[in-house]
Structure formats: C-alpha cells, structure tokens
Amino acid sequence: MISNLKFRSLVLGFIVLLYSCSSVQNPSSTNEKSEEFLINTIGFYNLENLFDTEDDPTKFDESSPIMEIAEGEREAVYKAKVTNMAKVIADLGSDVTGTAPALIGVCEVENFKVLQDVVNDPYLSNYNYGIIHYNSPDARSIDVALLYRKSIFRPIHSKAHELVLYSDTDRTKRRYTRDQLYVKGKLDGEEMHFIVNHWPSRRGGEKRSRPNRVNAAKLTKKIKDSIQTQDPYAKILIMGDFNDGPYNESIKEVLEAKEFSENLGIRGLYNPFEKLFKKGIGTIAWRDTWDLFDMILVSKPLIYTTDYSSYTLYQANIFNPYYLQNPKGRFKGYPFRSFADGGFTNGYSDHFPVYLYLIKKKSVDTLPSD
C-alpha cells in the first residue's frame, strides 16, 4: 500500500482511468461519488549471479563471476552489486505507486544471506521485507526466492517443489536444477498464490534443451492444477525467468497461456506480456535480437473487470529505464549486466525486470481521515 498523501495524489488519476472504462461517473458531474483505490506492484527480477564472496566447499559457487575478481576487490564489488539490486527493486513500479513493490520474485541468488543484504540495504531497509527462500540442488548453486513487505502480505504456506531432470545422454544421471517455489498468503487480507520459477537454460541449444523446459512447465502446471482443484477461483501469479518466450511450447502449449483474456476458461492463464513482445519489447537481448523470457502469468480471477471489489490486474510492464541499459558500445541499449570479461561493470543485470499493478477499491472503513 502507499502513504495517505501519495495515495490521495493517485485518486484523481484512477478516477479518470476508470471513467474511461465507464465504471465511475464523470468527475465533472455534480453527483460524483469519489472512490479511492489500493494499488500494489508485483514484480520479478533475475538478479544475475548474486553470489557472496565466500567459497562454500559444499557448493560449486567458485564458478560465480565475483570469484573471478581479485580477492582484495571482491567485498567492494559485492556491496556495489547488492546496492544496485536494491535500487532497482525500490524503483520498480514506484512511478505510479510512489513506493516499493508489495512482492517481488527473484532468481540467480546464492543463498539467504545475499537476500538479507539486499533487503537491509538503505534503498529497501525502511520497507521491512520478509524473505521466503529454500536452498535448491542446482548445479550452479543458484536459487529462487520471494521477497514480501510484511505490512502488506502475510505468508500462510510455502514449499519448494523439486524439478527432477536427467541427462539427455545418460538417463540414470540426474541433472540438478532450481526448485519451483510455491507461496500462499494474503495480500491485504486477500488470498493469493505465487509460483516463482527459473527454468533450465538453453545451454546446448534451444532444441536440445527444450525437453527440460517442457518438463519444468509440466511441474508448474501440476502445482497450478493442484491449487485450482482446491479452489477453481484461486488468484494465481506464475512468475519467473522461463528461458522461453511467450511463443514457445512450454508456455503456449503446456501452460496454455493466452495472449487475450476474452473467452478464457476459469482455470486458464493469461499472459499480459505477449502483447509487449509482439511490439518488439523484450527483457533480454542476444545477437541484436530481443526476446522475452521474464514474465508474470495470471489466472482468470485476476483479469480486469469493472467491479474492483477485489484485487484485479491493471497493467503489466517491463522496467527498462535508461540507467538499466548499457550506455555505450556494441551492446548499447541492451540490459546493463553486472559482470563481463571477468570484471565488474557496475551494471545491474542481463535481464530487465517485469512487473504488474493490482488494484482494488479501498473499503470505507480503511479510508484515511483528514
């Protein structure tokens, strides 16, 4: 939620917005009944190799970029990296809400400690973020997590779902990858479900690695279906770096995510990012081509209505301000990654973050007093 002062400044804007959708009276009408709205940002961000500076003998963390930097410089680089990540999270959606996201899923994080350092950074420390994280068996020692503002979201249940994969050359050999994180909780008292993903990479080529992401999608679908068996009207947000685009088999056929919300079945998924991709907007760039691997999919009960009595999807966006773009050279305009050529660039990530706004009417008993 946002402060009373900032919230009041948004009220008129949302009255205009909703009037354009024919859901409130004309603001110029003498019979106008002013309505106020809650608005929260939900985001996802690949933090690009957020490792600490310690060599954990139980993990393959020495492969992290920060361990390639001279030992005497690692601590300063780590602190700069943490601050850069915290700044982006704080800025996400703030041009509308005036505050940091209510929840944000993250990936490419080594452990709980690096997440603590991010949420305790001055950019975020005032927001009192909680952390939901499980250590996964990933070969690169990277995990997914969900950060949430304790004043807005109350977690009820969480679970790490293991994705079991095998080598494509030896079916008896496990290929260890990231878990999928499921979190159930209440956003301002309203029940929500979140699934945070970082699906297997395209190493070895898209075609060769495709079965791994198809299997990841099947696990995500299994989690989603289990939720909807208990409650067909559950509000579900599936977020992540899928290493696939809106057009790939995993998203389009296994999860059956739709570009358009019209005629969507009660258990269906809507992908608000597919339209952005078709406009040429992406979250990653490779060989002068944009792609969109980072998305947030939503279940039908979150799709736009004119009621607003409960949280509803308003808008989805890719966060790509100038400071997150590579400022010069061959890769100008690409996401400004943190590490390149064995060194620290003082950049951010090789992915742009994604986010969406959820809005609902503010009940009379919670309206701020003058």
TrEMBL record:
Pfam families: Exo_endo_phos_3 (PF19580). Keywords: Signal. Residues 41-360 form the Endonuclease/exonuclease/phosphatase domain. GO terms for molecular function: catalytic activity. Residues 1-24 form the signal peptide. InterPro entries: Endo/exonu/phosph_ase_sf (IPR036691), Endo/exonuclease/phosphatase (IPR005135). This is Deoxyribonuclease I MnuA-like, EEP superfamily protein. It comes from Psychroflexus gondwanensis ACAM 44.
